[in-house]
Amino acid sequence: MRKHNSNEVFRITGARQGLTDDVRGRQRRYVISMSIRTVSVILAAVLWNVERHVAIVALVLGALLPYVAVVIANAGRERPPSLPSAFVPMPAQPAIEPGTHQPEGQAEGRAQQG
Fold this sequence. Notes:
This protein has a domain of 61 residues. By secondary structure, it is mainly alpha-helical. It starts with 18 loop residues before the first helix and ends with a helix.
């Protein structure tokens, strides 16, 4: 077993989602959008002679959703807010502040006076 005496601390909080999960999520959003489009086109056909205004809105929605769904599906991978650095550097150790240095003769003189 290896022991690492390194002071590097790795962080993964800025890691992106895996490629497989990203593709699966985009496919799911595309299928949902196309399902809504299908329902809106069917709704437009059913409501055309009953409620024409609602049918026109559903038809416009059915016409615009494929473009929006393709743009969303092909948008690409998410961008991380900022790329994480490979490690967190160790904090700088504070320097010892220099004390007030008195010559030996003055320190002894004070001790004898007191």
